[in-house]
């Protein structure tokens, strides 16, 4: 069951204990949809008969429902409505909606006062649609790693940020290792004429790699290589940005992968956790316009909040929301690092994001 659904059941438990009726219709719907077994139904009926209805409801909410899979919560809501307990279902729906609104950040970018045509020493960003932002979010790892339920908030927040920055946003979910590569290669072959390309990859991972839903690793270098000047000539002189995150919440280790951004008419690349290498004469141009950002410095652990998502993603969204109309990319990444440092001090956690391999030749403003 999704962590937000578990939290909803816990926070609303006093109300549910008072209002839920363990009627024949209610239990029948749950049984028909395999949310409860015949044995569990018998036990609930016995508890209700021999103790109290509240005791049966408590047993169902704490010992049965949270363990019955990702679809159980919505079936539970339907069973409530089908057994004339709409007011209970409405209460839970309203709580979830309010909780999601609180978890999703409000983004209201100010308009830049700079001219996109006349700013000297900056990459040209002139298309009405700045570019394409691709978000890949791996949530379910088929038992190989913990589920990343709260990453839904990261997707919502990042997608909204890039829409406000005038990007077309495409979202993909649950890709295995080969699927991550193929998804990015497909997007590469269909890039529109624009200024910037962004790819955000959120997943479990470790040093220099992210994991597909099959538990197989994808090297960050291989992701960056998809968009080099030879394989993707349209981006040869444009921005490529990669950011990587590994997060831990409630004792469960999780890792979020790269965010790639590419300016298509004079851009910068954020590469993530790439080893330092001396460029050869034949590859030097392909290594320009890059910058790598990771959610942690080497050796640190990134953290995730079950009701908010990644502090790293929230820091990016907050900084860009307040300063994208004034500051260029590298300065904003420095601000994100400081925000993470201050957040870590407050919570006695060591986590700062790290910028590496910056090969920008100009300043990049998003011109919101």
Automatic annotation (TrEMBL):
Residues 129-240 form the Caspase family p20 domain. Gene3D superfamilies: 3.40.50.1460, Death Domain, Fas. InterPro entries: CARD, Caspase-like_dom_sf, DEATH-like_dom_sf, Pept_C14, Pept_C14_caspase, Pept_C14_p10, Pept_C14_p20, Pept_C14A. It comes from the Eukaryota. Residues 1-95 form the CARD domain. The keyword Hydrolase applies. One of its GO terms (molecular function) is cysteine-type endopeptidase activity. Belongs to the peptidase C14A family. This is Caspase family p20 domain-containing protein.
């Amino acid at each position: 069951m999704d962590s937000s659904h578990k939290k909803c059941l816990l926070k609303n438990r006093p109300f549910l204990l008072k209002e839920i009726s363990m009627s024949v219709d209610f239990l029948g719907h749950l049984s028909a949809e395999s949310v409860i077994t015949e044995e569990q139904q018998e036990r609930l009926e016995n508890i209700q008969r021999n103790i109290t209805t509240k005791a049966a409801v408590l047993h169902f909410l704490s010992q049965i429902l949270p363990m019955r899979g990702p679809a159980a919560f919505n079936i539970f809501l339907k069973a409530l409505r089908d057994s004339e307990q709409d007011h209970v279902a409405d209460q839970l729906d309203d709580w979830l909606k309010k909780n999601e609104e609180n978890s999703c950040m409000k983004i209201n970018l100010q308009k830049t006062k700079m001219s996109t045509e006349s700013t000297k020493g900056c990459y040209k960003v002139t298309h009405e649609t700045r570019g394409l932002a691709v978000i890949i979010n791996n949530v379910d790892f088929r038992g190989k790693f913990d589920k990343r339920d709260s990453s839904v908030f990261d997707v919502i927040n990042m997608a909204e940020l890039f829409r406000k920055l005038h990007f077309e946003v495409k979202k993909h979910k649950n890709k295995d290792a080969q699927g991550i590569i193929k998804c990015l290669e497909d997007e590469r072959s269909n890039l529109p004429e624009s200024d910037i390309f962004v790819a955000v990859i959120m997943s479990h991972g470790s040093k220099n790699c992210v994991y597909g839903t099959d538990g197989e690793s994808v090297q960050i270098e291989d992701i960056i290589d998809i968009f080099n000047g030879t394989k993707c000539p349209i981006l040869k002189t444009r921005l490529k940005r990669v950011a990587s995150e590994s997060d831990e919440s409630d004792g469960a280790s999780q890792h979020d992968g790269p965010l790639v951004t590419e300016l298509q008419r004079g851009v910068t690349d954020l590469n993530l956790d790439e080893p330092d290498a001396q460029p050869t004469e034949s590859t030097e141009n392909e290594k320009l316009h890059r910058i790598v950002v990771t959610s942690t410095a080497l050796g640190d652990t990134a953290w995730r909040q079950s009701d908010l998502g990644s502090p790293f993603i929230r820091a990016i969204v907050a900084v860009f929301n307040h300063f994208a109309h004034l500051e260029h990319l590298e300065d904003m990444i420095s601000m994100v690092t400081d925000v993470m440092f201050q957040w870590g001090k407050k919570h006695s956690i060591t986590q700062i994001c790290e910028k590496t391999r910056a090969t920008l030749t100009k300043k990049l403003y998003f011109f919101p």
